[in-house]
Design a protein that fits this description.
The chain is α/β, with parallel strands linked by helices. The chain is built from ten helices and seven strands. Helix content is about 45%, strand content about 20%.
């Protein structure tokens, strides 16, 4: 995760993946990000807000040369441990979405999943991602959609005192598209995912048609992915 008011921590990620809801949901999200990124084999990929390295290692297993950055040292330790255990080779470094410590035009693909909703300066963060992306490189963002049952649960949690969800900002596909276009990204594509409520039994039934729904509309999607190309 990126610069959040309260660090979620690797234990929370592990507990989430131990549930059927977490396993199904993360698999669908990663599948969508990989599709939006296109072929990553042989590509240099930056994963901004890499968390415990699950997506970074998935990208590496698909042949990418991956660097993951995160603001939380505990997450980075978990990510390195995951890579060392053979989940996929990737490098990890401490960093912030708004201040990436890489030269201009360093990466072929930049991905950021569930990052913008926790970053105070979303436009600045996207500008940094675009800066380190080579011309004609691909930017892929996955974020939490505004209109879904999941968002309603999270908003209520914020009202009840959750520092994480109280500070989160949920966006529509149109808002995400505008942010990318404002940073000089064109050919922007939007897709949705996670159309079921946060209930494991329902997720097991509705996971199969979820990708097809995502190609039709982003309305009701708990997860929205947008991608585009940096202008040459």
């Amino acid at each position: 995760m990126p610069d959040v008011p309260v660090h979620i921590g690797p234990a929370a990620y592990a507990a989430w993946r131990a549930t059927s809801l977490g396993t199904i949901t993360e698999r669908l999200e990663h599948r969508l990000i990989l599709e939006m990124a296109g072929g990553v084999a042989g590509q240099r990929v930056l994963d901004v807000g890499c968390g415990d390295g699950a997506l970074a290692c998935t990208l590496a297993r698909h042949g990418a040369e991956v660097v993951g950055v995160d603001a939380d040292p505990a997450m980075l330790e978990a990510a390195r441990r995951r890579a060392d255990e053979g989940a996929g080779h990737a490098e990890f470094a401490e960093g912030h979405a708004e201040r990436l410590s890489f030269p201009d035009d360093s990466f072929d693909v930049v991905v950021a999943v569930t990052v913008l909703c926790f970053v105070g300066d979303a436009s600045g963060a996207i500008s940094e991602m675009v800066r380190v992306l080579r011309p004609n490189g691909r930017l892929v963002l996955g974020d939490l959609g505004r209109w879904s049952a999941w968002t309603a649960v999270r908003v209520v949690a914020g009202w009840r005192g959750s520092a994480i969800w109280r500070s989160a900002r949920f966006r529509t596909a149109a808002e995400l598209r505008v942010l990318l276009q404002g940073a000089g990204v064109h050919e922007v594509t939007t897709r949705g995912s996670i159309y079921y409520p946060p209930v494991g039994a329902v997720a097991r039934v509705l996971a199969r048609p979820d990708p097809a729904l995502g190609r039709l509309t982003t309305v009701g999607a708990a997860f929205i992915a947008v991608s585009g190309t940096k202008r040459a």
